[in-house]
Amino acid sequence: MKPYISVGSIFMFFFGGAYFIILYYLPIYFQSVYNSSPIGSGVKMLAFIIPLTIAAIVQGFALSKIRIVPLFWIIGGTLGTIGCGLFYTFGTETSTGKWIGYQIIVGFSTGWSFQTAISNAQVHASPEDMSQATAIVNCESLTYYTFHGLSPNSNSRLHDRWWSFLSRSST
Questions:
Q1: What is the pTM of this model?
Q2: I want to staple 30 with a disulfide (CB 3.0 to 4.6 A). Which of 24, 36, 86, 135 is the partner?
Q3: pLDDT at residue 158, rounded to an integer
Q4: Alpha-helical regions (H) of 94-169
Q5: What single-letter DSSP state applies at residue 127?
Q6: What pLDDT, on the 0 to 100 scale, is given for residue 171?
Q7: Which has the closest alpha carbon to 123: 48, 52, 69, 70?
Q8: Is there a contact between 85 and 48 (Cβ–Cβ < 8 Å)?
């Protein structure tokens, strides 16, 4: 496997795993702690989705000009790590400003980094290999989520801690 595919796949394995965990648990947090409806929970996630979308567009233009892929991964990974660490501070009394601000940080970092591996694979792949390169890198973002399932039967410590937090906050 070519380095631009293997390195991008490794990055997407971990970064995609964190992304899908956020997409799974953040709406549950809003529904359980703030008693939001599923639609209300989705509206509260706009603070995550809008910066993600804007950053993905800006990243496409910036990557075509700068052409230094690791720079995008380092910036996005650093901001994503900081933002997810701030997510860990969420509680039952978290202010609106905090959960909006933390979502903006993580949304921007996700949009800035998520498509970089796929873009890099597509730029370096020959036309006949482009579909395979895209599929391999994109598949890795789902692999973490699939193998570390977040179903109620999961043996994940994160899953157990999350559900114990939710059960404490609802009582």
A1: 0.81
A2: 36
A3: 56
A4: 96-113, 116-124, 130-147, 157-169
A5: T
A6: 52
A7: 69
A8: no
